[in-house]
Amino acid sequence: MPAWLPELLAAILATVIAITLHEAAHAYAADALGDPTARERGRVSLNPLRHVDMVGTLLIPGILLVTQLLTIGRVEAMFGWAKPVPVDIRRLHNPRWGMMWVALAGPGMNVLLAFVAALAAHFAGLLGPDEAALMYRSVALFMVVNLVLAVFNMLPIPPLDGGRVVTALLPWPLARRFAEIERYGLLVVMGLLFILPRISSELDVMAWALRSLVAPVFSLLLRAAGHPA
Fold first, then answer.
1. Three-state SS at 13
2. 142 falls in which pLDDT band (50, 70, 90)?
3. How far is CA 153 from CA 46, 99, 130, 157, in A?
């Protein structure tokens, strides 16, 4: 068995959990704020299959995984998406602010999951040295996956959650023009992840996010959960 396979499988499991609960949080929030569209379409669910997008969840990540393993022998970057939760902004009690809270629910769920994992790490003290080390690695991986997903989705680019938040905060004329970026959003995100880092390491947005956002929040959650700094 390749040395990287167990960690890859653990990362895939962590990603499935993180994405499922991220999308479910969007659906539950929209339903609670007045829009039953997601519930009517069966998306208010913790079943991962309800949130799978054939292209974004399976095809593109699969192609990226195989291509990187065959060309460079390791996985440097992954990209994908789940099936978007349907939200009819007109059915929300407060369309503008309701959409913002629906958008924040997904990343908020991922931060909560990372914090719960940090709390669960206390149980490692009940295990033997080898089992405790494995649990610490698993917890760290689960936290990183969730925090990366939260940070990535909060990039201020429509249709990412951060783009939805910015749209809600802008004055209406600017919000409408900003929302038009959504038609090019996927291309912008692909450029940020895969093209700019090839041009210059200083343009690697995700590397910056890992250093400046994910790492500090990771440490903050560990301290909040009662672990030594």
1. helix
2. very high
3. 20, 15, 35, 9
Torsions phi, psi for 69 (to 5 deg): -65, -35
For residues 109 and 25, the answer to whether their CB atoms sit within 8 Å is: yes
What's phi and psi for 41, nearest 5 deg?
A: -100, 15
* Interatomic CA distance for residues 102 and 164, integer angstroms: 9
Closest CA to 153 of 213, 75, 211: 213
Would you kindly state where each structural domain of the chain is located, as residue ranges? 5-224
Cis peptide upstream of residue 159 (ω within 30 degrees of 0) = yes
Confidence band of 50 (pLDDT split at 50, 70, 90): confident
Element housing 208 (H / E): helix 205-209
Longest dimension (CA), the chain: 60
Note the pLDDT tens digit of each residue in 195-215: 888 888 888 888 898 899 999
